[in-house]
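Homework help board

Subject: predicted structure for assignment chain

Our instructor gave us this sequence and asked us to write out the predicted structure in token form, then describe one feature. I got the tokens but I'm not sure how to describe them. Can anyone check?
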Amino acid sequence: MTNYLWCFITDQPKEWVKWAEFWFNTTFHKSTSATPLEVVYGRQPPKIVQVIEGEIRVEAIQRELMDRDEAFGQLKKHLLRAQD
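My token output:
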């Protein structure tokens, strides 16, 4: 968890709370044998698909999704480096 938060504090200081909450709610917890989202809503977390540039017609949404994909890419890179 510490490594996860560190990745977003350094790369996206204003966004880390939102992503940390998403991560927590969609991560499997041994104590409940489910994710918090499953416990509350009774279903699996939604799959996140990578957006293709130009696929979305509304520019603000396209930009938000591209930023999300960039954030996930940075997170993956930092977590893999932390595991090594």
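Reply (TA_rk): Your tokens look well-formed. For the description, you could write something like this. The chain is about 60% helix and 0% strand. That's the kind of observation they're looking for.
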